[in-house]
Structure formats: structure tokens, C-alpha cells
Amino acid sequence: MSLSLLPKEEKFFELFEMQARHNTDAAKTFRELLGNWSLQSPAFDKLRDIEHEADITAHEIIDKLNRTFVTPFDREDIHELASKMDDIVDIVQSLSLRMQLYGVQHVTEDLVAMTDTLLQAVDCIRKAVPHLKDLSETRRILDYCIEINRLENAGDNALAHAITKLFKGKPDPLEVMKWKEIYEVTEDAIDRCEDVANTIEGIVVKQG
């Protein structure tokens, strides 16, 4: 009877994929909320549930990291990847709550467009993460990361466009402050996707 002292590394990858799904679930739910906007929408509760599940997954990754001797790649990279993916869900849920607390009565085309960009970025993460199990397909992983970088640039441009529109004419200063923050937080979520892509690229380079 043989006894392996090496841990099963597959569990880390399963958890990473789960966390990536939490990202897409949060972004999709937020997009659905914008498409049928209501301050009483059940989507707010759904986003809170997704954020809670994402926290549990992140904690499970960190706990496993603390209990595992041999890891599939650098411990710092595992911790960073888990934390940065969790950040995305946190920001999306926080954004929805902020809009609810502000009593936002309508959504703008600019916010919808930025959210669509976020959706594309988290979907790239969802597609890239499973390939970390087999780094023989590094080209495909890096292509997803390049696309996320492109989307982050598009998010920057969309933010600039949206804020420029805010200051046209004689806007209500409170509305400007409110929507400027909403746009900036949305763009921050897209930025975090780029952070995840940079972490993934770093893992690929180290393992290559």
C-alpha cells in the first residue's frame, strides 16, 4: 500500500473557478438590476448572498493555503489571486448598496455601458482561470489577460466620457457628486479585473 504525502492540488483550482463564477454571478445580477431598476428589487438581496458566498470561498482558499505544505504555485500568488477576485464581488455589491442608499431613481446609459464592460472582463477571468491547471496553454491564458487590459482601457475612456457629460449645462451639484462616485466605483471594479489579469500573468511567467 502506497501513501502519498503530497496534497491534492486540484482543490485550489476548484476554489479559484468557484470564485471566478462568483464574479460573473455578481456582475450579471448587477446588470440585470440595472435593466429592471427598482429600489425594492430582490437583486439587492441576491447580491448580498453572492458576496457572502464569495467571502466564504476566499476564506476557504486562505485556510487551505495555511494548511497545505506543497502548493501548485507560489503561496503569495495564491493569496493575491484569491483576494483580488474577492475584491471584485465586494465592489459590485457595495456599489449596488450605495445606489440603494442614495435613492437612485433611474440608471444611465453610461452606467449600463460600463457594466457591460465589467461583464466582459469578469467573463475573461472565468475563462482564463481553469487553464491555470494546465499551463501548457499559456497563449490562451495570456490572450484573455490582454483582452482584460483592453477592456480596462475602455473602462477608463467610458468613465471620462460619463463624467464629461455630468458637467454639461447646469447640473444639480448633488447629482453630479452622486453619479461621479457611482461611475468611479464601477470603473474601480473593472480596474480590479486588470489586477487579477496581472496576477495571472505573473503566475504564468513564474511557472513557464
Summarize the structure in short.
With 208 residues, this protein is mainly alpha-helical. It has six helices and no strands.
How would you characterize this protein structure?
It is a single chain. With 208 residues, the chain is mainly α. It has a single domain (10-207), classed as Methane Monooxygenase Hydroxylase, Chain G, domain 1. Helix content is 78%, strand content 0%. It contains 6 helices and no strands. It has helices at residues 10-35, 43-67, 75-101, 109-128, 138-166, 173-207.
**Which segments are poorly predicted (pLDDT under 50) over 5 or more consecutive residues?**
1-8
Strand content: under 5%
Number of domains: 1
Relevant CATH superfamily: Phosphate transport system protein phou homolog 2, domain 2
> What series of H and E elements makes up the topology?
HHHHHH
CATH class value: Mainly Alpha
The CATH topology turns out to be Methane Monooxygenase Hydroxylase, Chain G, domain 1
Gyration radius, in Å: 19 Å
CATH architecture descriptor text: Up-down Bundle
- Given helix and strand content, the structural type is mainly alpha
Helix content: over 70%
Number of strands: 0
> Number of helical runs?
6
Q: What kind of assembly state do the chains in view correspond to?
A: single chain
Please report the distance between the alpha carbons of the first and last residues: 35 Å
Largest sheet: none
Mean pLDDT: 92
The geometry reads as globular
